[in-house]
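Example 3.2
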Amino acid sequence: MEGIDPSSFVELTAGWAKDRSHALYKGGIVEGADPASLTVDKVDPDYALDSRQVFYKGNLMPGVDPLGFTCIDRRFCKNTTQVLFMNSLVSDVDAATFTVDSCSTEYPKPLNQMLCTAPRPSLPQLVVCQVHDKNRSFSLERKL
């Protein structure tokens, strides 16, 4: 790769790599990333962070604080003050007490096939999670 220092190049995991001057994701330079402090999340390696910011699949996650950032599973990550659900910030949540109770993947039922009980792979799936923090219990949903 052009501009990459082979003597300091290190492959990390899941497409992430770095050399002395660059952080890389799947061969592309991750602009603004600090390779000296770059680490890849162990639970969800699509995420990496440096001392100043968080990245998802090589893209900066604006406004996401790297302080205390860790992924709970492949759907949820959090830091000391924020929670992410499938790569989006969850509003009005207490990150310190945030807990995932359950998640399921559902298929919407087409109106003209209400009696069909088999899942239809051509239809979009919906991830539905029941969660809570010290203030409330609530649901989060996202189409796959």
